[in-house]
Amino acid sequence: MMPDMLWKLFEITVMLALLIPIAATLVWVERRMIGIWQDRKGPNRVGPFGMLQSLADLLKILGKEDWIPPFSEKAVFTLAPVIGAVCVLMSFAVIPFTPDIGVSDLNIGLLFFLAMTSLAVYSVVLAGWASNSKYAMLGGMRAAAQTVSYEVFMGLSVMGVVLLSGSFNLREIVLAQTDGWFIQSQFIGFLVFLIAGIAESHRLPFDLPEAETELTAGFHTEYSGLKFALFFLGEYLGVTLISAMSVVLFFGGWMMPSPLDTWLPPLVWFIAKILFFIFFFILLRTSLPRPRFDQLLIFGWTIMLPLALVNLLATAVLKLTGVL
Amino acid sequence: MLSQLRTMWLVLKHTFTKADTVEYPEQKPYLAPRYRGRIILTRDPTGEERCVACNLCAVACPVDCIALQQTIDDDGRKRAEFFRINFSRCILCGFCEEACPTFAIQLTPDVELAEYERQNLVYEKEHLLINGPGKYPDYNFYQQSGIAVGDKAKGQGVQEAAPIDIKGLMP
């Protein structure tokens, strides 16, 4: 019992110690990639290829005054960024990285993930409300509406996967893809999940809660210093999380087709797949403009929700008739 | 939806295009000869100061960053007793250059005007004066104008006729 528990604690510590630098590195990767796609160079001064840029930014942001506006609801204001970061970090507990690595083999891992992404909206809504400022309030309200509508079909889109694998356990879902990844049969489900995931993590083109051109910085307008950094951490870990979940649910997790799987260890394949999605997220950010808020909601309720339902229905019918 | 995908494809193609960045401190960007940068005071081809301290530049200056005082030498040449430009105010608009009747004040393509001490941005005449004629190498104000100065009397200028004897009776 004891060594087991120690091993888990060790695993959790390593995960936490890695995830936060990974989020910081992602900021640099994103800025470099956006630079490349916009025919610029991006940050390339601090350290080799500018890799230490995030460290420099972090040091700067730690040196900033951590200002709590006197007009804000102070306790909630302080709590909101913590909720956001903790919820995203908690979700990583259920992700199976390789056959051996993975903090928890929760038998409702998928539901846990959905619950945590839903809880994360409290961070944004509370931040918007506690800031007691117009922009933050508008951002928080947008976040609430957006998350509520996109969460619905995010849950529905992964139910096809659950139907096919017969389990909510993420490790079993990965193992159920030994014969073929779910992207083959669940392509529509994947599209809906990805779009919902972008909306859930407030990434462009669905970053309306923090649309800087209209709302200054949306829900985190009043935040500075370490609390702002926590929001940033949450956002970039959210990107990693959605990428990891896409890989686990639709792209076979750590598994690769026969000749490829012997070339590199499973963890490397898993990370490579996640990186592919992260780059996709960054490409989305560089290329697509932000829709209007009503367009976003109409798109969600009239296109994505029926699509998710039809996909679920078709999957169920095909599963029952034994085609899949 | 197709247009979104096309946009993404077009952006993705930029992975392989060269960056337009000029990496500034190592690589200097090209600045045209008439670029409006640091202000200088130029000299005649003969090496005399061109500035006659007429104050037109100070009047034209929209931010009042030029201060000067005229003095007249014994040979009749006018020059600035002091000439001060506060570059922490200067907006490099070039109005002073346009206003200058003697081509004395000119803007150069030097834009690296950074200092740690604000006071160091206040340039006195000795900082502004250069040894050459700047953009107009052959221009000499006193040779073009009808002013008697030093060994050049009235009517000896390049485009000048001899002065008319206004008291003479001949047509």
Keywords:
heterodimer; A: mainly alpha; 12 helices; B: 171 residues; alpha+beta; 3-stranded antiparallel beta sheet; two-stranded antiparallel sheet; 5 helices; elongated
Provide a descriptive summary of the structure in words:
The complex is a heterodimer of chains A (324) and B (171). Chain A has 324 residues and is an all-alpha fold. In chain A, 69% of the residues lie in helices and 0% in strands. Chain A has helices at 2-37, 53-63, 74-91, 109-130, 134-165, 170-175, 187-200, 212-215, 225-250, 258-261, 266-287, 293-320. The longest helix of chain A has 36 residues, at 2-37. The model of chain A has no long low-confidence stretch (mean pLDDT 84). In chain B, strand 2 (66-72) and strand 3 (78-86) form a beta hairpin. In chain B, the strands form two sheets. Chain B has a three-stranded antiparallel beta sheet. A two-stranded antiparallel ribbon of chain B has the order 1-4. Chain B is built from five helices and five strands, in the order αβαββαββαα. Chain A binds chain B through residues 35-41, 283-284, 286-288, and chain B through 4, 7-8, 10-12, 14-15, 17-21, 23.
The backbone outline of chain B, from C-alpha atoms, is elongated
Characterize the largest beta sheet of chain B: strand count, sense, and whether it forms a barrel. 3 strands, antiparallel
Q: What proportion of the residues of chain B form beta strands (DSSP E)?
A: 5-15%
Order of helices and strands of chain B: HEHEEHEEHH
Q: Estimate percent helicity of chain A.
A: 55-70%
| Helix/sheet category of chain A | mainly alpha
Question: Over all CA atoms, what is the radius of gyration of chain B?
Answer: 24 Å
Measured between the Cα atoms of the first and last residue of chain B, the distance is 90 Å
